[in-house]
Design goal:
4 strands, alpha+beta, four-stranded antiparallel sheet, single chain
Length: 77
């Protein structure tokens, strides 16, 4: 398996935290020296290990934001 390099350029916030200290975060990450993308995934406290996640371009993030807003408006608890 090839090495994967990453650079967390900005942390926008923690979405949730598990008992073991792992946190689901929204970050701006450059993967393998490529253009940065929005990234949602679980990270261990030192950001050395990560779980599966999703990366989004700005355009994809904007669409997701619109979809989430609509979903939240229509799903009142």
């Amino acid at each position: 398996m090839p090495d994967i390099s990453y650079d967390i350029l900005k942390c926008f916030g923690v979405i949730s935290e598990e008992k073991g200290g792992w946190k689901k975060e929204l970050n701006l990450v450059s993967w393998n020296g490529r253009s940065p993308k929005f990234d949602i995934r679980d990270w261990e406290p030192g950001h050395q290990k990560m779980g599966k996640g999703i990366t989004l371009t700005r355009e994809e993030a904007e669409l997701l934001s619109e979809y989430l807003q609509t979903a939240l408006e229509t799903q009142q608890e």
